[in-house]
Amino acid sequence: MAQPTLVKPGTKVKLADYDPDYHGSLSKRDPEVAQRLEAAATSMYKLQQRLYAESEQALLIVLQAMDTGGKDGTIRHVMSGLNPQGCHVASFKVPTTQELAHDFLWRVHRQTPRKGQIAVFNRSHYEDVLVVRVHKLVPKKVWRRRYRQINEFERLLTETGTRILKFFLYISKDEQKERLEARLRDPSKHWKFSVADLKERKLWDQYMEAYEDALTNCNTEAAPWHIIPANRKWYRNMVVAETIEATLRDMDPQWPETDVDLSDIVVE
Ligand code: AMP
Ligand code: MG
Fold first, then answer.
1. Which atom of ligand 1 is nearest to the CA of 67?
2. HEC assignment per residue over the chain
3. Is residue 264 part of a domain?
4. Residue 90: domain span
5. What's the CATH code of the domain at 100?
6. Whose Cα sits closest to atom 9 in ligand 1?
7. pLDDT in tens for each of the 268 residues of the chain?
8. Domain total for the chain?
9. Is the CB of 195 under 6 A from ligand 1?
10. Is there an atom of ligand 1 within 6 Å of 245 CB?
11. From 82, 166, 249, 268, which residue has the greatest number of CB atoms within 10 Å?
12. Residue 244 located in a structural domain
């Protein structure tokens, strides 16, 4: 049976129920894979043009994953088919002193897409209930209430014309080991290697627990989570592209009508 990616709101997420290695009955070189990717990309491009022209709705794509989970690769791959004028990528790092002087959503709200735009978050406000929780950067009573605050924030966005797509790119701990080793082997990947990633890796189980709570507590009808089996990059890219395409199709952006009658206009 196909492994569904959309998590039904109200279900308690147990990551053990999901297989990060899942890839259906497909293999990387199946012509079907290339065809599906191509079809999604072509359609996405056309829909984005309409979204941009319409300028009534926006799309926010949230990417969360463990280190090496494929956030950068997904962005590179999925965004390459879009018109850069209508896209915006925001990467959330360790907060600056200025950011820490505000509420945790301040820096996030500033990066949300304007009408007509697609914004992609490379990490997001979810770090504030993930890394922050695992490293006890704030007391429990502070991060506990963030689930509700996040739900209210996301509701504000969806009620004002922004669709939210949240992807958890789920890799296994073994796959992360391979990817970290690959970064060590390949000089062109050294810049991506961070000794801090090894420390985070030791906290894998705590992170999975924090992810399960975020995926359970912040999974609303308005802004549901998708758990993407991400051990295989080609499968991850295909599923993410198809999900974005289906969402844009569902948003159904329309070419705007002009209020002037253009039928008599002659360009001389
Ligand atoms: P990278 O995505 O590899 O460039 O790393 C960014 C780092 O910033 C990761 O280790 C994140 O966990 C960390 N980070 C992002 N947001 C926060 C936050 N709100 N509080 C603390 N650390 C964060
Ligand atoms: Mg990193």
1. 3
2. CCCCCECCCCCCCCHHHCCCCCCCCCCCCCHHHHHHHHHHHHHHHHHHHHHHHHCCCEEEEEEEECCCCCHHHHHHHHHCCCCHHHEEEEECCCCCHHHHCCCCCHHHHCCCCCCCCEEEEECCHHHHHCHHHHCCCCCHHHHHHHHHHHHHHHHHHHHCCEEEEEEEEECCHHHHHHHHHHHHHCHHHHHHCCHHHHHHHHCHHHHHHHHHHHHHHCCCCCCCEEEEECCCHHHHHHHHHHHHHHHHHHHCCCCCCCCCCCCCCCCC
3. no
4. 29-251
5. 3.40.50.300
6. 93
7. 578 899 999 999 999 999 999 999 999 999 999 999 999 999 999 999 999 999 999 999 999 999 999 999 999 998 888 999 999 999 999 999 999 999 999 999 999 999 999 999 999 999 999 999 999 999 999 999 999 999 999 999 999 999 999 999 999 999 999 999 999 999 999 999 999 999 999 999 999 999 999 999 999 998 999 999 999 999 999 999 999 999 999 999 999 998 888 888 999 9
8. 1
9. no
10. no
11. 166
12. yes
